[in-house]
Amino acid sequence: MTGKKLEPEKQETFAEAEKAMEDWMMSHSREIIRERTEFLTKLNKKRCSYGEGTTLPISLTPVFLKDSTVRLIARVAETLDKALDKVIDAYPNDARVRSYFPYLDIPEEWVAWNPGYKKPTVINRHDALFNGEELQFIEFNTDMPGGRGWIGVYEELFSKQSYCGDLIGKYVNPKRPHVLEEFLGSLLNCYKEFGGKEKNPRIGITSFKSYLVGSDAEIVRDFMIEKGYEANFLDPRELEYKKGGLYSNNIKFDLVNLAIRFVFYKRYPRELKDFLGAIRDGAVCAVNPFRAIIGAHKEIMALMTNEENHDLFSAKEAETIKKHVPWTRKLDETITLSPEGTDISLHQYLLAHKDTMVIKPTGGAGGQDVFVGSNTEVSKWESVVENCMGCSWWIAQKAFEVPEYDFMTLEDGKVIQEKRNLNLNPFVFNGKYVGTLGRASRSKVVNVSSGGGGLIPVFPLRPGVE
To answer: Hey, what domains does the chain have and what are their CATH numbers?
Structure first.
């Protein structure tokens, strides 16, 4: 007698497992509310806050990305990082490059200071959109990007949630980079190239007192201390430049992380004389260097997407720019080539193509003064075009629809699934992709500092998981 042949047990896919989790959540709202309350308490204890309020993920679950998607983001981000550096390196001596950046927000002499290491941008976090097929990088952030501390806390807490912890443990890539380890490693690499001799350099996180305590910076400081480095918050106005070094209360600091936007260092010229003098003279290793501000100005996207400038880049970099950076022009480029490659009046083009364009200030941050044509009334759009045309500190950019994703949220005491706009923010430290932070919002302008988005961890799935 022959036994009955047993069919092999069907392996559950990630999509099936995720759907099962979501179904369970929607039928167990009371349990989810209780666990969510505990989650928020832990989040506050770990100092994940922004300003006076607490910045919370807008979703009950994280974002999961396929390994192929993460590899695409990493490859493009690292290639564009090389292109950014080439523009910044060309800036001092290339009149064509310099013409794109008439207003850098900080003194030219700061940009010229030699930081003691070669790479002009070290700690970067960029803004990208991915709709499942196309990946577009819409802004670069090389001027004190934050969130590097938050991302690890969010990952840790979500991994301990009863309803999604098992899913994360089973399907998420365990070999993903540790963002704070990569951050610290990048600082130390700069210090070594700088010529620093201390085995464990004393590290300062510099900002003004009103911004120093709390949130992301505290998490970063605590991690450094945990790893065996003396790390402190420093108000740069209180530092002394003496005996060839930078001191706080007679304690010498070897390495400083500039933890507020560069423009803030202009506010107190007398009080910051010692601090800036130490950086100028190479008495302390400072990361990012001031020259990194060039990469944060949106004019760089106009330069990169104009094919007349592609001799600055390798063939791979130029092709990556064409495919993954939206067509951008400064508003003083009155006659130019359209995205289709024809001669145009930029003024007339913007009026005729309102629904496919975005207008924003070149040095803006926090999503302020961003005008999305498809969401702007005709009269307002025409007014913006008329008022900004000819101004070198405004850009026009081909719009890329902010993709919507399904998120699990709480509303009226029930777990529901809702659409949210998702912006992906890949970190690139010292030229290497180290992870992604997500921001989700009902608004098409997704930004945390302007109240337009909540932070969400982005987990990479294991290779082969579908």
So the answer is: 67-297+424-460 (3.40.50.1760), 327-398 (3.30.1490)
